[in-house]
Design a protein that fits this description.
nucleotide-binding, urea cycle, 46% helix, alpha/beta, ATP-binding, 4 strands, four-stranded parallel beta sheet, Rossmann fold, single chain, ATP binding, 121 residues
Amino acid sequence: MAQPKGTVVLAYSGGLDTSCILVWLKEQGYDVIAYLANIGQKEDFEAARKKALGLGAKKVYIEDISKEFVEEFIWPAVQANALYEDRYLLGTALARPCIARKLVEIAQREGAQYVAHGATG
């Protein structure tokens, strides 16, 4: 195991990619705090919490940010008629900045030096 390098708050879903990056960050010597954002999706958050802790997360935050997601991101996008390829609402694209904002807030609260995500792209 590498020398301690600091704390990273990881945007975590409980899926394969974010679980692999959690383990990899631990192997690189980081303390990992997992953050799961509830933006209204159907998800087994407790199972994801247990998985993150089982993989070595120091702490897990799960926050319901669905109200601010709708009020501050979805509603303005609908008012602006924001569409992808003139066909689809921008749900996933709109969720990213909402989640990132909370990720940074948690990093500041925890005194973490880093934030990360484990999305495939």
